[in-house]
Each structure stands twice: as C-alpha cells, then as structure tokens.
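User: Structure please.
Assistant: Input sequence and predicted structure:
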Amino acid sequence: MDYSASFQLIAPELVLAVSGLILLLVSAFVGDKSARAVHILAVVALGAAFALVLPVALYGAAGPDTLAFADLFRADAFAAFAKLLIFAASAAALIVAPRFLSAAAAKRPEYAVLVIFATLGMCIMVSANDLITLYMGLELNSLAAYVLAAFLRDNVRSAEAGLKYFVLGALASGILLFGMSLTYGFAGTTSFEGIALAISGGLTTGQLFGLTFVLAGLAFKISAAPFHMWTPDVYEGAPTPTTMFFASAPKVAAIALLARVSLEAFGSQALAWQQIVIFAALLSIVIGALGAIGQTNIKRLLAFSSINNVGFILIGLAVGTAAGASAMMVYLAIYTVMTIGSFVAVMLMRDADGNQLEGISDLAGLSVTRPVLAWCMLALMFSLAGIPPLFGFWGKFVVFQAAVEADLLALAAIGIAASVIGAFYYIKIVKVMFFDEPADTIKGDGDTPHWALLAICTLLISPLGYLLIGPLGNLADMAAASLAMIVPA
C-alpha cells in the first residue's frame, strides 16, 4: 500500500483534522475570548479544503487512482462534488453563527470546532468505500451534531432537541449496525466492491434483510419518511445556525452516502432497493407537503419542506442509473442554496431588541415594513415550490426527466401532482407577507454577512441561475460517471 499516495488523496481531510485539533487547543487554552478568531480560522480551513477538492471535481477523477488505504477510501469526482457543497454549507453556518450566539450569550469557540469535526465526518462518509469507513464517518459527524443541537445549554428547547436527536440517532445507528452485520455475515466482506460481487448472482434472504436495515438506518440520517419523526422538533429547538447546518451539509453527505451504497455496493440488485427508495420518496413528498400545511413556526415548516425535498431527490436515486444520479446531484446543489438562503432570511427575523422571531404570523405585511427581506423570501419560497422561472424549477425538472426516461412514468406523475400540493404552504407565506395587515414586529437589522449570503443565494436561485446549467450539469455528470456502478442496463 502506497501511503504517500493515500495521504495525498486525503489532503482535504487532513487539513480539517489538523485545523480542528489546533483550534480545539486554542479554545481550551485561550477561552471564550478566542471565539471570533476560531470562527474565522475555521472558515479559512474550510476554504482551503474547498480549494483542494475543486480540481478533483473539475477533472472528473475516477478509477483505481482515487482509492486510498487498501480501498477503504475513495476520493473520486462524486465525493468531490458532495464535499464542495458540504464545505460551502458549513462555511455559511459559521459565518452567520456569531451574531446569533452572541445574542444568546453563547458565543463560544467550541461551536466552530464542532462544525469542523462534523464536516470531517461528512467527508469520510461521502468517500467511504467500505462499511467500516462508512460507520466511522457517520459517527464522527453524529457525535458532533448531537452537541451542536444542544449547544444552548440554558435553553430548554435546545436541550430537548439535542436529547431527541441523540436518542433517535442512537436507534438509527443501531439499525444501521445491525444491517451492516447482516450484510457482512452473508456477503463475507465489508468492502462495497466485495458486497457487489457477492450479491451479483442474486440476493439471499439474509442479504436482503441486511440491505433493508442499512437503507433504513441511512433514511433516518436524510430524514426520509417514515424515519422523519425527529426532524421538526430538532429543527425547531436547535439554534437557527445549527438548524441551517443540519438542513444542508449533513443532508448532502447522507444522501451522497446513500447513493454510493445503493449504486455501488448493491448496484447489481437495483430492483431490490428501488422499491424501498420509491416508497420512501413518495411517502416523504406526501408527508412533507401535508405536514407543513398547519405549521405556525417557520422553522418547523422548513423542516417539513426539507422532508418534501428529500422525496424529490430520492426520485433521482430511484432511477438507478448515472443519469438519475446526475439529476439527484443537480437537485441537491440547488436545494443547498435554497436552504441556506431560507434560514438566513429566518435569522433576519428579529424584533427591536434583537430577539429571534419564528412565527409565520410575524411575517404579516413584511412587504411594507421590510420590502427587501420580503422579496428575497418570496423568491426563495417560490423556488422551493419549483415555480418557474426560478432555478428551483430546474431541480425538479431534471429528476422528473430522468424518471420519465427510465420509464418510471407513474413515479414522475405522482411526484408532479404532489409538488403542486406542496406549493400551497410556500404560497401561504407569500400571502402573509404581501397581503396581510403589517404586524410590524420584525424591526431588527441584520449585519453584512447575513445580507451578503441572502443576496448571493437569492441571485443564484433567480433566473440568473440558469446560466449555471451547463457547468453544474457537467460537474454532476462527471460525478455520476465516477461511481463504480454495477447496474443492469
């Protein structure tokens, strides 16, 4: 095994690991007064990792040269595409966190350190080429995420969110471990390539049970129905920057991991898992759409919106081909931008004393009192609903197109019909902002980073985003092509 080549392939992960350890020491020895510096240095570390990963995505790295440490780790274009989204979302969460944490009297350097280690876990997840690597990355991310959810120690809602996330996360990890042990027992190996070869002649009953439990454990991590029950409570109770982080970066990592496991490890038996994925996709779309209708808290509504969007992303995975994987990655990129923009807009909902407001009723008449914020939220809500000409429409279009080309006409038709239902609660927010009498409760001003992020996200999901169709599509195609898929033609 060539260790020098392996260490070159994991350079982004090494940057994050070393940065996290150094910042942890700085936090311990300097104390809370280092919070600002640690946040800035953490963003710099994420930027450095982004720069190291970008060439891998641009050149479509694939094949044996991307394997490291006896084939446990795969640094291919698919992993690189996911890592770019993860680094961008993690950096965004760090950029908007200081003001929120300061207002909550919880501005501590550990927050940035936890985000760095969670991001490191996500990088390992998307590059996993073995069940052992998969679990190491998943747990590293999860352990940091549990603490981030309960970061506001004196806040009852935050503590409750952390506890619920921990208990249900432990349950999901147990389900995943059981599935992994069954898969290992009946396949005789933990490597994705070995599993693919072991099941190439057909699935035994034990292997089928192993596959089912592995997919169930991963479904929890992406908050796909029927394993979505934790999402609304955790999203509502966790600090808003943490909620933004949960809704973007870990979701990208878990979906990319699910795609790699499905298409690489179990790719030769696509018909076995396609039924599970299609069921989860449709159920997520319906539950996400119907569950959001009666919500009065904007963060809970966005939680159900997240579940709904996961359903659309899973339609791309259900296709089970490179075209479907490419469509899934395009949707995932657009979804990440829309999610970051939406939560930044929520963080700008502050009263005159700087307290965070989360009620949808607080948005009443926002077009009169805060027109810039209202128009940005209108663009984001319509894009999440998939209304043209906003860029969110393109994400839905490509996954439905992939489904139609794969002759999954019923799945595409049901998805399109359900997306119309889901548009109701997005339009309800717009109605409250533009047609209700002003509540005039949102009076606090945001700082420059918040407005800059909101402006960038709004521009990217506007019709100007269609200028990115070519480059984004090419990156997604190369990412999908780098997957070592064994899928029947």
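The mean pLDDT is 91.
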